[in-house]
Design goal:
The protein is α+β, with helices and mostly antiparallel strands and 109 residues long. The protein has a single domain, classed as Orthogonal Bundle (Arc Repressor Mutant, subunit A), CATH 1.10.10.10. It contains three helices and four strands. Strands 1-2 form a two-stranded antiparallel ribbon. A two-stranded antiparallel ribbon has the order 3-4. A hairpin with a 5-residue loop joins strand 1 and strand 2. Helix 1 packs across helix 3. The chain starts with a strand and ends in an 8-residue tail after the last helix. The relative contact order is 0.20.
């Protein structure tokens, strides 16, 4: 299970509670330090899933991945459920969510 914690310094920290995973993966990574181009695995195509952010152009939305993590699934369970996913896809989905949670809206084109 993951918790995204925002500190007063506008940093996103992720605390990971499942074994052997990404403790502190986003620690001290500021949104300003990660331009939209950093998310090379997150795509936005109006013709796929209504333009929602997806993983590598597949019909799998970032929101779906995040909701399953929020429901308690581990990264390892997601990789079994979706064999075409890679660990970096899931980690980048978490990064993207933290980036968006900072509150600045950005047009995805």
């Amino acid at each position: 299970m993951f918790f995204i914690i925002h500190t007063l310094q506008r940093r996103a920290d992720i605390v990971c509670l499942d074994k052997g995973s990404i403790i502190g993966y986003l620690k001290r990574r500021r949104r300003a330090d990660m331009p939209l181009e950093h998310f090379n695995r997150i795509t936005n195509d109006p013709g796929i899933m209504g333009g929602k952010p997806c993983i590598r152009g597949m019909r799998l939305t970032v929101g779906r991945i995040l909701s399953q993590i929020g429901a308690g699934e581990t990264i390892e369970e997601l990789l079994v459920d979706y064999p075409y996913l890679e660990r970096e896809d899931i980690l980048q989905s978490l990064q993207y969510a933290a980036w968006l949670a900072e509150g600045r809206e950005v047009a995805l084109t």
